[in-house]
Amino acid sequence: MSRSQLEKLSILNTANFSNHFTFSVVQEGSDEASRQVLSIEPASAPIIEDGQTIILTKNYDLTVSGLFKEDTISSLQTLADNRTSLVFGGFGLGGQILQLEGAMNVNQIFSETASFRFNSPREAKGGYDITTVSPLHAHTGTGKHTSGLSYSTNGFALYKWGDQDSSGIADGWTVTGTDTTTSFSNSIQVIDSGSSTLTMTRDVYLPFDGRAIYFNIKTNTGDAPTGTVNIQLISYTDDGSTPDVTGSAVPVTAADTAYQATVSPSSSAKMVRAIISLASGADLEFKEPTLELDSTYNFVEFNT
Predict the structure, then answer these.
(1) Domain ranges (residues) in the chain
(2) How far apart are CA 235 and CA 265, in angstroms?
(3) String of b and e for 16-45 (b: at least 16 CB within 10 Å)?
C-alpha cells in the first residue's frame, strides 16, 4: 500500500530516559548513519465482493538498518530481549511526523561490519479505537489508533480528536487543577479553571534537531475565552523536570480564531510539551489542536 522513508528517528524508553537513541539517514562518512522505512501493507487475504477488495487488517512496520556503535547495538538488543515498551518519533521527508508505541525486534547483527537491523511490526484493522454501542457489543474506545502508530503532518494524530471514554477530557491529554470543570461535546473541548489554575498538556517525543515545532488550536465560534488563557510549547531534556527551550506564551483572547505557539528544541531535547494554561476564573472552548513542522495550521488525522 505504501512505504515512506524517515529522515530522522528517535527511540525512547519513557520509564528510563537514559534509554534514548536518535538515527539519521545514511550520509557518507557519518557516524551511526541509518535508513528508516515505514511500511503499511495488507495483512489478511482480501475478500472480493461485487468486484470490491476488502482488506480486513494491515501490517504496519518500522524498519531501521545501518552501521551502529557496539554499545548502541548492545543497548538496543537488551531493549528488544526484554520486550520493553518504547516510543518512536520521526520526521518524514514531506513534513510528516511519526508517533509509534510498542516493542522492537532485532533482525540481524553483523559484528564484523557493525551493521544492525531492527523493526517494530504490528497488525491492526486501521483507524481509531472508538466507542461503539449496540445490543450485541458495547465497547469503550481509547481514541488511540488501532496500530499504536500515526504518520501525518499532525503530531497529535496518534489519538483521534474526541473523548471516547466520556471523561470530559480529550483522549491523550491531561488536565491538572484543584477546582476544574471539563466537558467534551461535538468536537469542542471546554475547560474551566474555577477558583484555581488549570493546565491541559500533551507530551510528544521526537528526534529534535533545532527545527521549529508549531502548536495550534482553534477557539469555538461565538464563545470567546474569559480570563487569562495562554498556549505554549516547552521542550525538555528529561521527563518534564528540566526545560531545554521555553517557547513564548501566546494569549488566547477571541472566539473563532486560530492561535499558534512555537519552539525550536535543541538536539538535547527528548520531548516537547504542549500546554494550555488558564488563570483562576478563566474558561476556554476550543477544537482541533495540531503539532506541526509547518507554520500553516492544517488539522488532519491518521485514518489509514
Answers:
(1) 2-124, 161-292
(2) 6
(3) ebebbbbbbbeeeeeeeebbbebbbeebee
pLDDT in tens, the chain (304 residues): 588 999 999 999 999 999 999 998 865 455 567 889 999 998 876 667 676 777 789 999 999 998 888 888 889 999 999 999 999 999 998 899 999 999 999 887 666 556 788 999 999 999 999 998 877 778 899 999 999 999 999 999 999 999 999 999 999 999 999 999 999 999 999 999 999 999 999 999 999 999 999 999 999 999 999 999 999 999 999 999 999 999 999 999 999 999 999 999 999 999 999 999 999 999 999 999 999 999 999 999 999 9
Q: Give strand pairing partners of 202.
A: 274
- For the entire predicted model, the pTM comes to 0.93
In three state form, how does the secondary structure of the chain look?
CEEEEEEEEEEECCCCCCCEEEEEECCCCCCCEEEEEEEEEECCCCEEECCEEECCCEEEEEEEEEECCHHHHHHHHHHHHCCCCEEEEEEECCCCEEEEEECCEEEEEECCCCEEEEEEEEEECCCECCCECCCCCCECCCCEECCCEEEECCCCCCECCCCCCCCCCCCCCEEECCCCEEEEECCEEEEECCCCCEEEEEEECCCCCCCCEEEEEEECCCCCCECCEEEEEEEECCCCCCEEEECCCEECCCCCCEEEEEECCCCCCCEEEEEEEECCCCEEEEEEEEEECCCCCCCCCCCC
Q: Does CATH number 2.60.120.260 belong to domain 161-292?
A: yes
Residue 46 is placed in which grid cell?
Answer: 482480501
Out of 1.10.10, 4.10.410, 3.40.50, 3.90.1200, the CATH code matching 2-124 is 4.10.410
What CA–CA distance (Å, rounded) separates 111 from 18?
A: 24
